[in-house]
Write a structure and sequence with these properties.
By secondary structure, the protein is of the alpha/beta class. A hairpin with a 2-residue loop joins strand 4 and strand 5.
């Protein structure tokens, strides 16, 4: 569904990704793990057109998307839930959700998708009129997840969703990911919680130094070996 081939990208004169290639199959949860600075977030940004490629290609449903403006990606069926939530603090929970269906093609189903978000995250329904800036960290992550689902994307890119959250909230979050996976959604998950990421995934990619150093079906992953490679010098 999503094909990444020999991608190089970075920030100005600083290159971060070095010949990165991976396949993201339809209906599966693919997780990308690795230490800080490995290039995981940079890869998601490159997929979404937030940074340009200096080499390589990205194809979605067989069509190139590397030159597609970021604001057109929702229309193509890709949505990203960024690291750090990135919610609009001075807007209500419901207003934040509705922004996820802002493109004209998605507005007709916005109310139904909003109700689905409330069903998936009941606490958001309780706080629908509340300013997003008053939410706890876990509630803010729920809001970011709900907003990302408002366009009913074909591919959902999720960047470090458990960052800074209490263990009980992390467990709830991964229960939600498991539910989304069981619905047949295509998910790319960047996550530093190795055990939970591997447990929920169909396929695992380990990145270090801007390169993919391991690509393996999750069922075949030896977590001890994975962690040795994770922390290797």
């Amino acid at each position: 569904m999503l094909e990444i081939s020999d991608v190089r990208a970075g920030y100005g004169a600083i290159n971060v990704l070095w010949d990165v290639s991976m396949q993201i199959p339809e209906g599966q949860l693919t997780t990308i793990i690795g230490p800080n600075g490995a290039g995981k977030t940079t890869l998601l940004r490159a997929i979404m057109g937030l940074i340009p490629l200096s080499q390589g290609s990205i194809r979605f449903d067989g069509q190139p998307v590397e030159k597609t403006p970021t604001w057109e990606m929702l229309g193509r069926g890709l949505a990203m839930i960024p690291e750090g939530r990135m919610i609009f603090k001075d807007m209500s929970v419901e207003e934040n959700l509705m922004l996820g269906a802002f493109p004209k093609a998605h507005r007709a189903g916005a109310q139904a998708n909003c109700e689905r978000a409330f069903e998936m995250f009941p606490r958001l329904k309780e706080r629908r009129r509340q300013m997003a800036g008053t939410l706890s960290g876990g509630e803010a992550q729920m809001l970011a997840m709900g907003r990302g689902l408002m366009s009913d994307p074909k591919v959902l890119l999720i960047d470090e969703p458990s960052l800074g959250l209490a263990p009980v909230i992390v467990n709830e979050l991964f229960d939600t990911l498991q539910r989304l996976k069981s619905e047949g959604r295509t998910i790319v998950l960047v996550e530093q919680n190795t055990h939970k990421a591997v447990a929920v995934a169909d396929h695992v990619h380990l990145m270090r130094g801007g390169k993919v150093v391991l690509s393996q079906a999750a069922r075949d992953v030896d977590v001890a070996e994975l962690q040795q490679r994770y922390f290797a010098h």
